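Figure 2 data, in text form.
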Amino acid sequence: MTMKYSIPLEKDLIEKLTQFWMVIFGQRNEELNYILNGDEINDNTDYVYLKKINSTIAGTTHLTIANEMNYLGGVGEVGTDLNFRKAGIAAELCQTAITEFVNQGGEALFLGTGNPDAARIYYRLGWRKLAGANVMTYISSEESPEEYILKYFNTNDSEPRIRQGSAKDRIPLIPLITLPHDWQILDSNTGIFSTRYATQNSCMSLYPKFANIKRNKQGTWFVLSTQDGKIVGISSITVNKFNQCQIDGFTHKNYQKFWNELIQACLNWANKKNLNDYYCVISKEDEEKISLFSSLGFHTPKTSGQISINDRPIETIRLIKK
């Protein structure tokens, strides 16, 4: 029997699903508590699809659709009980999610996987891999993901707005982050690199990287949003135990002229909290980004250490502003 549940879920079902996913994925995903309890119903529409065999949960799939941009969605928690694998359950549930999404006007449905066997199933259902990422996209128009994303960002909004990031950005930030950018380090606070240089292994777990900054009271984050809701830039600020603020951010190339304002939003947030010791960590090879931070008064470059991007050591520098 296949069942569809709308969020929020009843407590006993949440507990059963949590146990099921712990067995399947080997860890507890605390992020799901915010979703399954209904904390995000004003921002996203979520459905959980279950396949039961003899009253036992045999498989699951979780669909998320952005409320303000219902043509974007994401799929997660695709899991099948070991005793019921190779019976087509995952394919059946994923197809159900695709149908739901498309029927609601969906255009691009994202999904992350590093499992080659699972990727073959998704491919048969119409998902296609994005270059430089273990992320796949189902495009309802049957265009290639590259064609769709190119048209998606083919905008030139002259008045995008900057606001603090929220759950409404859970899905819309995926296209921006999985796009190949020229800068190697996109956001040093969250460890996000450009897919031009490093494989992006996250999809539905991208949003928590930023959300947890605010949830854990370590700082906050901002997005640059077009008038139709597309996320074209992200900045973040974290505060350490010495009250030093690490700041970083990036934009789509069409909106780079707003990068300064996006970083300034972080500085303004810190100023209101009487924090005035700032720094950034940048790849030594990202000369354009170094220049942009320097234009905001960051200075005294010095070697900060090395990071590894696809097993290649990258030297970083630290700029400070006081």
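Caption note: The chain has a mean pLDDT of 95.
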